[in-house]
Structures are given as C-alpha cells and as structure tokens.
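Researcher: Next sequence.
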Amino acid sequence: MVDPSQRLWNIPIATESNLRDAAFDQGYRIGPEQAAGWIFFRSASAPGEIALAAEAAVGPFFLSVQHAGAAREMINREFNQAGTCAKGHAAAFLFADLEQLYAGVSQVYRLSMSLPTLPLERFQEETSGLGETEAEAVTRVRIGQNIFRDALIDYWNGACPLTGIADRELLRASHIIPWAECSSDAQRLDVHNGLLLSSLWDAAFDAGLISFDDDGKPVASPALSDIAAEELSLSTSPPLSLTPAHRENLAWHRLRRWRAD
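Model: Next structure:
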C-alpha cells in the first residue's frame, strides 16, 4: 500500500477527477489544492477540511479528516484507518472503491455539521433577537428542537439505527436528558444527548420503558409488557454505536427514568 505522502505532487488527471467529484458531490466544493500527494477540499458550511488521495483512478482511496470530533466518530464507527493522515489532520481512512469513498466523505460532512458546537452556534444566531416573554420562550424552544432534530438526522444518517426506518414523519428526535432538565443550551443541542428513533421506540424510551446499556444494547424496564417487547423486536435489535458522552447520558436516563417507576 502506497503512503499518500510519498506520492509525487502531481496526481494523474483521471484520479484527480474522481477525487474532486467525490468531494464536490458531498458538499466540499472549495478547492482543490495539492500538497504531499493529497488533494485538499473545504466546505462553505461544514467546519474542517478534508484531503483525498488514491493509488490509482480505481482505488484504493484515502480520506484524511481535519475535524477531530468527526475523526473520532469515524474511528468509533469502525471505518478502516489508514496509516498516515495529511499534515495537521486528526486521522485518515482507507476505502476500497469509489462507492465507499463517497459514503465516507458524506459521513464526515454529516458529522461535521451535527457535532458540537455547530448546532449551538446556529441556535444562538437564530434566537439572538428574542426577548424574555412567554411567547418568545416558546419560540426559542421550538427553534432549538428543530435544530436538534436536524443535527440528529445528520448524525444518524437520516434513519433510526434500530429499525432502519428513514421516513422522516416516523422519526423522533429523542433527548436522553430532557430539554427542561438540561443545565445549558449546549447540553440541549448536543447530539450525544439524543437518539434518532422511530415513533414506537421513541415513545418507549421517553416513558422510561426501555433504555440502552454501555454496549448500546437495548434493555427493558420491568414495566415493559411482553407484547410491547415483541413489537419492538427487543431481543433482535442491533446495538447502537455509542460514544463515551452517550454512555454518560444514558446512565442518567436509566437511573432517573427507572427510579421514577
């Protein structure tokens, strides 16, 4: 396997075209710039640059990620890591073909858009003109919840990770620690304080009838009926991919929700 940093500075036209298309089609349209075997791209909306490289026009392909949070999430989701990343970047990943590369670049874009602190910055911008009246407080919550939902849709790739349901009308942005009990707007808008769940899972989770353990496996409250457990396919549901922040919030959820029972 060729280390991208050992390649010649000039990348063949066909290979560059494939890399440029992979970046442009997924939202990274500022660039390209070349250095040390990498082609660099940036986005007008997502923070952090990416860099792409390839052994040949048909692959394998390399994706280097500057955004440290997005890189950690990619590692947590078990994307194949490459040995060397671009200078100043957090990590790099290896893809066998263009289809996988497109999916990887799309994942980085979605993560960069959803991870702290971008949702919070958007919330602060959209609520900056609101005062302290009751009506304005209601508006502030509605704006925040809409931003939170958008961020969770990006983070979970637009589908409930338990059921695969992608119909937006059937998806709910489920706070782990409820909005009213969060200590700050940053916590309210942190995607690690939420799950994107289909409506039945959301209702069970919000009621404290189900939660998730540190391995992401669903666990049932003793109050959950056998019929509900069967409808949820509780015993065959896949585990969630969790970060340490998810685990901390879910520990709160298990303790508070089940104690309330």
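Model: Strands lie at 30-35, 38-42, 50-54, 61-65, 91-95, 171-175, 194-198, 210-212, 218-220. The chain has nine helices and nine strands.
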